[in-house]
Design goal:
This protein is of the alpha/beta class. It has 24 helices and nine strands. It has a seven-stranded mixed beta sheet with strand order 3-2-1-4-5-9-8. It has a two-stranded antiparallel ribbon with strand order 6-7.
Length: about 500
């Protein structure tokens, strides 16, 4: 290291702006400003190496900007020095210059392609910049060069987790746990992956291990209580769930009724339908008059229901409104409105007067607004409508039953847009007829369906209806002709991909 007096953080870097004449005059400025650099060069050290030493001295003093400046000139003088490029990348990254850091790391990687540490630096910086594919490729290269490169494996797990590839993330992180690797979020990340994969026993172990280091994390304490309840229910029915609850109730767990309400749909979603029904009947008996609970029981027992009760839809979404956007878009990858709006635009369907049917929190509003001169949203849930109102994109928002609203507005719309709205109706005949009446001739009904091939419609254990796209198009034939139909992924449910159909129908003249 050179004996360079560190400047205060408030002091500007040395006045070393490169003159147009280039590297020679730039080097002369460094030599004049820092006699130690001049002394090294006079002693036979190459100019690039001397400036690299100066840059590292700035770095050790905590002056990342000055370090990046000196190291930048060092690699300009000696562009074949991989170590100097690596140092420059670290300095630029510390100085908040991530794009320049990535460029430096990639230059280093070209010069020293067998250096796993350089590829880790490329991967980390690309991840910071949102260049996910580049980051993953670089991390995989680092691991191929050094299969025990635990830092690279950990970050690759993070990338998989953020991409919701939970099985891959868990595989990477389980290997690290087995080797005793320690990182602040390792146990938490592994536990979350295992939870999303339905591996409730291992998830409980991982989350408990995380809480040993973060005992005040109330959210994860509640998650641990839920996971243990689920594991107990799967292996021991309601009695096992109760025993698991009693073991964690002193750890800040939620009331058992609250845990059971969250557990029932999860158990059903992961295929434990009989267990879900037993838990619901045991712990939610006091909720017999609750519309959400009643419909949940109907779904689990496959009752012959033709539509979800209006009071269920209203109560469920009033409770769900605050967390709807986060849960649906961030966790469940809900993409129906985006995909359906693109299909509508591709068909050239008229949309001057648009009705967003079952608008919820207004997720489709911003997508529909550019092509609409008037945009109206309708929903049964007052709380969801309040969330939609904050989006500021609707001309009007109405609280009403979908079919009743359509029936009361003859020829009022050019487009009726129903993304993820018909899942609470089984028999669609009344809605299709009402939508036809609410549309002007040539107008369009755009809808998404969760798909089934077993019957025209069926009530799933989630409480939602799935429909046969072919049967739905046939049922619409008296009023509509088909403009477009497309199979599509709509969302996740218990880590399973839910596929359905995007359909655009044209109102006959």
């Amino acid at each position: 290291m050179l004996a360079v007096q560190p400047r205060s953080q408030d002091a500007p870097p040395p006045a070393l702006v490169a003159p147009p004449s280039g590297a020679a005059e730039r080097l002369a400025q460094w030599r004049a400003a820092f006699p130690a650099v001049d002394g090294l060069i006079c002693a036979g050290v190459s100019p690039g190496a001397a400036l690299r030493r100066l840059g590292l001295t700035f770095w050790s003093a905590g002056e990342a900007l000055a370090a990046a400046e000196a190291l930048g000139d060092a690699v300009a003088l000696e562009p074949g020095d991989a170590a100097a490029w690596l140092d420059l990348g670290f300095a630029r990254r510390a100085a908040g210059q991530a794009p320049g850091a990535l460029e430096a790391f990639e230059r280093a990687a070209k010069l020293a392609p067998e250096n796993a540490r350089i590829w880790l630096a490329v991967g980390l910086t690309a991840k910071d910049l949102g260049a996910v594919r580049r980051a993953e490729s670089a991390l995989e290269r680092a691991i191929s060069l050094d299969p025990a490169h635990d830092d690279a494996i950990y970050v690759l797990g993070l990338l998989c987790f953020e991409a919701r590839r939970y099985a891959e993330a868990a595989q990477h992180w389980r290997a690290l746990v087995a080797r005793g690797y320690r990182a602040p979020g390792l146990w938490l990340g592994l536990g979350q992956c295992q939870f999303f994969l339905g591996e409730f026993g291992p998830a409980a172990h991982s989350l408990a291990a995380y809480l040993e280091t973060a005992p005040d994390d109330a959210a994860i304490t509640r998650r641990l209580a839920l996971v243990r309840f689920l594991e107990g229910a799967i292996h021991g029915g309601p009695e096992g769930a109760l025993a698991a609850y009693e073991r964690v109730s002193g750890e800040g767990a939620a009331p058992i009724v609250q845990i059971a309400r969250g557990a029932v749909p999860l158990l059903a979603g992961y295929g434990y339908v009989a267990t879900a029904l037993a838990v619901a009947r045991t712990f939610l008996a006091a909720d017999a008059e609750d519309p959400v609970h009643r419909h949940q029981i109907d779904a689990l027992t496959a009752e012959p229901v033709s539509r979800a009760p209006a009071e269920y839809v209203e109560a469920y979404f009033d409770r769900f409104a605050d967390s709807f956007d986060t849960q649906m878009f961030d966790v469940l990858q809900y993409c129906g409105p985006r995909k359906l709006s693109r299909l509508v635009a591709a068909t050239g369907s008229p949309s001057a007067r648009t009705l967003d049917l079952g608008c919820g929190t207004g997720a489709a509003g911003a997508l529909l607004r550019p092509r609409a001169t008037r945009l109206v949203g309708v929903d049964l849930s007052a709380n969801m409508l309040e969330k939609a109102r904050t989006k500021g994109v609707y001309d009007a928002l109405e609280r009403a039953d979908m079919i009743e609203y359509l029936a009361a507005h003859a020829s009022a719309f050019d487009l009726v847009f129903a993304a993820d709205s018909l899942i609470y109706l089984g028999d669609l005949s009344a809605l299709l007829e009402a939508a036809a009446g609410a549309l002007a001739p040539g107008g369009s009904l755009a809808l998404t369906l969760e798909a089934t091939t077993r019957s025209a419609y069926e009530l799933t254990t989630s409480g939602r209806f799935a429909h046969s796209p072919r049967a739905t198009i046939a049922a619409a034939a008296p009023w509509f002709s088909l403009r477009a139909s497309k199979r599509a992924f709509l969302r996740l449910e218990a880590h399973r991909r839910i596929h359905g159909a995007l359909i655009v129908l044209e109102r006959r003249g």
